Amino acid sequence: MATKPVPPRPAPRLYLATPLVADPAPLASQLPALLAAADVAAILLRLTPGDERGIIQRTKALAPVVQNAGAAFLLDGHYEQVARSGADGANVSGVEAMQEAMPTLKPDRILGVGGLITRHDAMVAGEAGADYVLFGEPDAQGARPSPDAIGERLGWWAELFEPPCVGFATSLDEARLFASAGADFVLVGDFIWQDARGPQAALVEAADAIAQGFKASFAKATVAEG
Length: 226
Prior knowledge:
Blueprint: E1 13-21, H1 24-37, E2 40-47, H2 52-67, E3 72-76, H3 82-85, E4 89-93, H4 95-105, E5 110-114, H5 119-128, E6 132-135, H6 147-160, E7 165-168, H7 172-181, E8 185-188, H8 190-193, H9 199-225
Parallel strand pairs: 1-2, 1-8, 2-3, 3-4, 4-5, 5-6, 6-7, 7-8
Helix pairs in contact: 1-2, 6-7, 7-9
């Protein structure tokens, strides 16, 4: 009996983290052009510290802009404010935070989990029902694994587990590497907003790098199967 071929994985998509937002108005004016320029699956809203009311107001000001463009809108932390702010979900850090957020967000909203130091942590998150696992983001001290180690973790996850995996990329080279390694989404942030040409040009370039990485992995898989 012939072995059924494994269907090719879908091309990875962009996941864009905002700068730290104190005033949502400037970002609200930028986002429509950014979301039209590249295929952005989701936006992760990072907020400067504030009270609950301020968090909800800032999120409400941006949510329709993102959602009307067909992208998901997630809060970085602040899972308690997701429902009242109109966001689609939250990204939290660590298994303990995931367990705290689960009753609030599931099953209706998105719960992504980063801060997964070990493979065991990642498996616990996946088995508990996380909508995605995130690898490679900096810790509180700014430290993170090497790009090759992040790529290895993405490849391990993509090969064995069903929930999507996200690679946190700090450069175009990392975006390309993580797309090649098996990431379903590539999270980009500061290097997009800090680009001297402006975020739109940088985002388009990141999308191209992801496409290149995926194409390289597809070609490699085709050669291996042949």
